[in-house]
Design a protein that fits this description.
Structural class of chain C: mainly alpha
Chains: A alpha/beta (about 230), B alpha/beta (about 210), C mainly alpha (about 220)
Helix content of chain B: 25-40%
Shape of chain B: globular
Structural class of chain B: alpha/beta
Oligomer: heterotrimer
Radius of gyration of chain C: 19 Å
Shape of chain C: globular
Distance between the termini of chain B: 26 Å
């Protein structure tokens, strides 16, 4: 990645330009940290739109002005992407305040917050896993769907639900709840984040795309608990 | 049968009402120019306004601290204040304390009972308001300019009704007016109020009924 | 209409009707006090009542979430769950509609000639009877308008509802939330169908109330 750094140094300009990034909610803290460093070095302004990956993909499809799409769904169904990289991995965990919940089967009959299980990647991953375990039918009547994975996290932190299934990386920032169960990588669905450039992105945005793949950025992602796949 | 107003003080817009009165007559006229405070005094007696100081006694009962509902006062205001959403019957029997159908006969309201109040003439309205007050079995009647708003041509007719009520029902009344003819036709005593104070008081020899 | 759509409509109408009915007693009482009495702290009450009208609905929703959540000051003492249930939908609707009802009812009460109430008192009626036989009948038209407004506002409630009740199909998904969802998912045809339903509901509500108001004249 030294080459990338040199490329970066060589293309520093004095004009402040905006890089528009649509990113999955679970990437909030790590991206903000990376962007802060990037902005210091390049004087560019990185502007984020954090949300559910499914909603972001739809917005991009509808023509929203994005330069980069960083989605929790590596199969993001949008046609407006060029340069796709499956970049990060994550893991599903069950977070709860309830000491009695230690295993997915303890979720039966409990109020469970999930990102919308029909559309949002985090919710789809959770549902797929529970279906695989044969638990979905017993759980789904008490599911509280939220707009994105952070909404599910907030609900369990506030105590308004008994448990939530979120990413390992989300659980790290939550106070007052514990990780009751981490879905083993071998059993859970493959969770891979798609990093992509959007067609017709602004030329200077590619600099940030490259920066995300440098060692420094990867270290930040690892620090926040992500697996780096590339 | 008495109305006692003791040391009542009520600040008004231009002056202060200061009255002490002992009324024992059957019908007392409260006479004076507009704005003299006559209506305000009636409101104090009825309990609709609180004086700064003073006491009110009705037939020996101190009603100063009582709300209007408990004072047994029949108040017929100048604008009659009939309940517009009710029929004549519903208005008259609102208090329905007594079954005094004699009132309806004396005031000849039988045929009008089921009409809406919006369809009444000025004179009829006055009679309905009076009947309503009488049917609450009051100990005192307070009549505020009962003939105001009635066509001149009909005034005499309504006055006849008032005379009849006075003759049939022995309820002491305070009769506010600024017309001397009414005073002479109905009242036993005259109290003159000017700028909040009683300036004159005389017993009257009233003209014979029907005169 | 599909059965899911009927369910959404049914939920919306039931919760809005319940919310409207529940705010009538406190709403009329508040409007009455504001119309007839003066007291220290009256402007504070007026301001508090008007707040949900002026604050952004989501801000009100956030406040409700804090208060009614399981660990919130009110939520923790209640024996049942509020957040993420139909109760939260009703409460959000009640809070947002309350100021509208109070406003309309207050004006209606102020237009009742106090002289009529005074006369009723001299005729021996207690306050409750005065209110029931004189004030209320004469203020009925204005109050009915206020209730219609409150009902319409409840049906259209979105911002506070989505925060405090979430968007749970069959339990808290109202007409507004459903339309929002469908648009987000790009299911425009279904969204437009629900739009049609919303218009029909609003139309019917206004029509019925106008007919009612006409008759009472």
């Amino acid at each position: 990645m030294r080459a990338a750094l040199l490329l970066l140094a060589g293309t520093l300009t004095l004009n402040a330009a905006e890089v528009r990034v649509f990113a999955a909610a679970s990437l909030t803290e790590s991206l903000e940290e990376i962007a802060a460093a990037y902005e210091r070095e390049t004087k560019d302004d990185v502007v984020f739109n954090f949300g559910a990956s499914s909603m972001l993909a739809r917005q991009v499809d509808a023509g929203a002005p994005a330069d980069l799409l960083l989605s929790a769904d590596e199969l993001a169904r949008t046609t407006r992407l060029s340069e796709r990289v499956a970049f990060l991995g994550n893991q599903l965990v069950i977070v709860t305040r309830d000491a009695r919940i230690r295993h997915p089967r303890d979720l039966a009959g409990k109020k469970l917050a999930l990102a919308e299980p029909s559309t949002v990647p985090a919710g789809i991953y959770a549902r797929t896993y529970l279906q695989k375990l044969g638990l979905w039918e017993r759980v789904k009547a008490h599911v509280i769907p939220t707009d994105n994975v952070r909404g599910a996290l907030a609900a369990v932190v506030a105590g308004n639900v008994d448990a939530a299934i979120v990413y390992r990386t989300d659980a790290r920032i939550a106070k007052g709840v514990r990780v009751a169960y981490a879905v083993p990588q071998s059993e859970g669905p493959r969770i891979a984040y798609l990093f992509a450039m959007v067609q017709d992105a602004q030329p200077h945005a590619r600099r940030f795309f490259a920066y995300l793949q440098t060692r420094r950025a990867k270290d930040v992602f690892k620090k926040h608990g992500f697996d780096v796949l590339r | 049968m008495s109305v006692v107003v003791r040391d009542v003080v009520l600040p008004l817009a231009d002056f202060t009402l200061e009255v002490s009165l002992d009324l024992h007559a059957h019908t007392t006229a409260l006479y004076g120019p507009s704005g003299a405070g006559k209506t305000s005094l009636l409101e104090v007696i009825a309990g609709l306004r609180k004086p700064a100081t003073g006491r009110i006694q009705l037939n020996g009962r101190d009603v100063t601290r009582l709300p209007p509902r408990l004072r047994r006062v029949g108040y017929v205001p100048q604008d009659d204040a009939l309940f517009p959403h009710m029929t004549v019957r519903q208005n008259i029997f609102y208090a329905s304390r007594v079954d005094r159908h004699a009132v309806i006969d004396v005031l000849e309201l039988g045929p009008a009972l089921d009409r809406g109040v919006r369809q009444l003439s000025g004179g009829e309205r006055k009679r309905v308001a009076l009947a309503r007050a009488l049917l609450s079995d009051p100990e005192v009647l307070l009549l505020d300019e009962p003939l105001s708003g009635v066509d001149v041509a009909l005034r005499d007719r309504v006055l006849q009704y008032l005379v009849r009520v006075r003759d049939e029902f022995p309820i002491p009344a305070v009769y506010v007016t600024h017309q001397m003819e009414e005073v002479e036709a109905i009242c036993d005593e005259l109290v003159v109020l000017d700028r909040g104070r009683v300036t004159e008081r005389t017993a009257l020899r009233r003209s014979s009924p029907g005169g | 209409m599909s059965s899911a759509e009927w369910q959404i409509l049914g939920l919306t109408l039931r919760t809005a009707a319940l919310a409207t009915l529940l705010i009538v007693p406190p709403g009329l009482a508040t409007a009455w006090l504001l119309a007839r009495y003066r007291w220290r702290g009256k402007s504070l009450v007026e301001t508090l009542v008007a707040l949900p009208l002026v604050m952004p609905p989501v801000a009100t929703g956030l406040l409700l979430l804090q208060l009614l959540g399981k660990r919130g000051p009110i939520g923790r003492v209640l024996p049942f769950d509020v957040v993420f249930t139909w109760r939260a939908v009703v409460i959000a609707m009640m809070v947002m509609s309350f100021p509208l009802l109070v406003r309309a009812a207050r004006v209606a009460f102020e237009e009742v000639n106090p002289r009529l109430e005074q006369i009723a008192r001299t005729l021996g009626a207690r306050d409750a009877r005065v209110f029931a036989t004189i004030t209320l009948p004469l203020a009925a038209r204005g109050i009915a308008s206020g209730m219609l407004l409150a009902f319409a506002r409840a049906i259209g409630e979105f911002g506070a509802t989505i925060l405090v009740a979430g968007n749970i199909p069959g339990r808290t998904t109202t007409l507004s939330l459903a339309i929002y969802n469908l648009v987000q998912l790009g299911r425009d045809a279904e969204a437009f169908r629900l739009l049609g339903v919303s218009v029909a509901v609003a139309f019917t509500a206004v029509w019925i109330t106008e007919a009612f108001l006409r008759r009472r004249v």
